[in-house]
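SUBJECT: protein chain
CONTENTS: sequence, structure tokens:
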Amino acid sequence: MLTNLMIRRSQSTPLAARRVLRLSFCIALSLAIAYGLAIPLPFITPIFAFILGMKPSPPMKPKALLMLLLLVVITTSVGLALIPILLHYPVTGILIITVGLFFSNYITVIAEKVLVGTFLTVGITLISAAGVASFSLAVVVIQSLAFGIAIAVICQWFVYPWFPEDKVTTDLPPPSPESDDEISTRSNWIAIRATIIIMPAYFIALTNPSMYLAVIMKSVSLSQQGSSLHARDAGRELLGSTFIGGCFAILFWFMLDLVTTLPMFTACMLLFSFYFCSKFYQVISSKFPPSFWQNTLVTMLILLGPAVEDSSNGSDVYAAFAVRMGLFIAVTLYACLAVYILELLRYRRIQRKTTIITAK
């Protein structure tokens, strides 16, 4: 009866507004639970709440959650196996990681295997880099990923009944037909591009894994976003969203500095989530696509989380933030340059191939 009452009340709210409220409350609630329970790397949890909840659909069932957690453990454990190779045979380890990144990014571009490819990328990069500093740190990162996903999905279970989707099915237009050669060629280029974007950040993280794990997370986010961009859009979306995300992180930090409590942290997160989700779902009109605001929110969370950890550890928050922000901008500039050069090479290759076919 209570569920029916909630559904009747929610149906009077526009669907787009429901989606904004649902996703915003999930992000804020997941942050409150993660920091309240003091799990390792708690800032990862609201990122998962956004990624897993941004698709307008009901939350996954308990069985699907268990399968996802098993997938996370299996794919990220690949990074644990790479740690001894990196420590004793670094050149061989780097080559294996490069090939592994190409493979994981290749299967990421296939829609049915996005989760497998993404978590395999995280395992190869984030876990192996953390293991270079300490094997226990790598295990902690895997535990953080599993806890973060579980908390994010549980928050969806609590929030979704208040803001459900309409029971309306829409038939999507069929995708444009492509030949096997076109699909293979496109996937190869996207996988190469994503691998080239991630590797420099991975090298930086190896110098001080505990300090620069956030840089790897940013580079993985850039590689996924850059895979769907053309060269002309890369600078505006990648660099623009990174810069705006950094500005919002600074604003968030100064608001949190006024009253440094978990309820204030949660309230600020809810406020910022309302704004970003409204932009993401186009409730507030924007000339930028949803992917721009997705990267902006993720960047803000990746910058803000380590800053909170630095504050609790007594470290110099502003110096560490400046270093991370500088690295984020440098990695983003490199990603833009990589997208531009690889798109140029791909265009010339297609033109040369077309010329040869025409001549025949």
